[in-house]
Amino acid sequence: MQPAISFQSISKTYRGTRGWLDWLPGRGGATGDKRALQNVSFLVRPGEIVSLLGPNGSGKTTAIKILSSLITPTEGNAAIAGFDTKGKSLQSRAQIGYCMAEERSFYFRLTGRQNLRFFGRLRGLSHAAVDRDIKRLEPILRHGDLDGRFMTYSTGMKQKLSLFRALIGNAPVLLLDEPTRGLDPHSTKMFLDELRAYARDRGTAILLASHDLDAVDRVSDRLLFLHRGRLLADDTPDEVLRRFSIPQEVVIEVRDPDESFRAALRRTVGDGAREELDRGGGTVRFTCEVEGAETDWVRFLREQSGAHGGVVRLSWKPGSLESLFARFSVEDGDER
């Protein structure tokens, strides 16, 4: 089966600024060149949701822009549904629905509906077809007033309009850069459910770049973890966490813990437990990163329940994407 997205040995360098003397023969080249991507390769198959993950500046948006033909790679080749994004950019663009991280392409003086009809016509859709898609998507995104001028819309409404534009027309490939930014929790949930349906029922290939780690965790078949322009991992979310040896977490909820309980916890995990009051449940929640086996914590639970009678719940969680992000963010901060 032909991949829906092919990204092969891509490197991208943004050239630094040049003074007018730098263009003279024998003068130096550009200064401050930035390597945004370094020999990155991956595939996305039809019906697959793949998330691009990484700290700011890791190259996620650059990869999306290369696939949408907004910029060209310095090295390597990219293709959408078999169409090269450089040599056959018109054909490749016809295969994608695109949601930008920072939306600047809508016409401010047109209404939302007029904008969608305009971009729909560019894709060969009739106004009636666009309106049918709007009606179908309305319960999912609760769009508000599409007949108001774009310039009057809130940030959330502008984001919803960008999502509408990406989803209309049943494109075989969706490129989504921070699609849930500015959405309320209900709209986010409904949108993510719709993405799963697009992939499952229509075979749509979806590439999602986001800092919304909960959204990434809920819908992704695979994660591509980028750091400083390099692809460090390409696997399922659980396998990526295991590859980087992200510690698992134990969450213990205790009613009225005394100092002897805290001392026993320190003996088990050191001083790394995070403590917070759960006002709704009337308990104190301790979260600890652990390396030991689950059976060790079952034994701890029995001992402490017998000693204090106040342990309400103990839950075992796999390593989190937040912990993965935190590790690389700290490394970047140390470098600066």
Task: Walk me through this protein's architecture.
The chain has helices spanning 60-67, 89-93, 112-122, 127-141, 155-167, 185-202, 213-219, 237-243, 259-269, 294-308, 321-335; strands spanning 5-14, 34-44, 49-53, 75-80, 83-84, 96-99, 173-177, 205-209, 222-227, 230-235, 248-254, 274-278, 283-290, 311-317. The longest helix has 18 residues, at 185-202. Helix 3 (112-122) packs across helix 4. It contains 11 helices and 14 strands. The mean pLDDT is 83. The chain folds into 2 domains: 5-243, Rossmann fold; 248-318, Alpha-Beta Plaits. The radius of gyration is 24 Å and the shape is globular. With 336 residues, it is α/β, with parallel strands linked by helices. A 6-stranded mixed β-sheet has the order 6-7-8-3-9-10, sandwiched between helices.
CATH architecture of the largest domain: 3-Layer(aba) Sandwich
Please tally the β strands and state the result.
14
| Strand arrangement across the biggest beta sheet | 6-7-8-3-9-10
Structural class computed from helices and strand pairing: alpha/beta
Mean pLDDT: 83
Helix/strand layout:
Blueprint: E1 5-14, E2 34-44, E3 49-53, H1 60-67, E4 75-80, E5 83-84, H2 89-93, E6 96-99, H3 112-122, H4 127-141, H5 155-167, E7 173-177, H6 185-202, E8 205-209, H7 213-219, E9 222-227, E10 230-235, H8 237-243, E11 248-254, H9 259-269, E12 274-278, E13 283-290, H10 294-308, E14 311-317, H11 321-335
Helix pairs in contact: 3-4
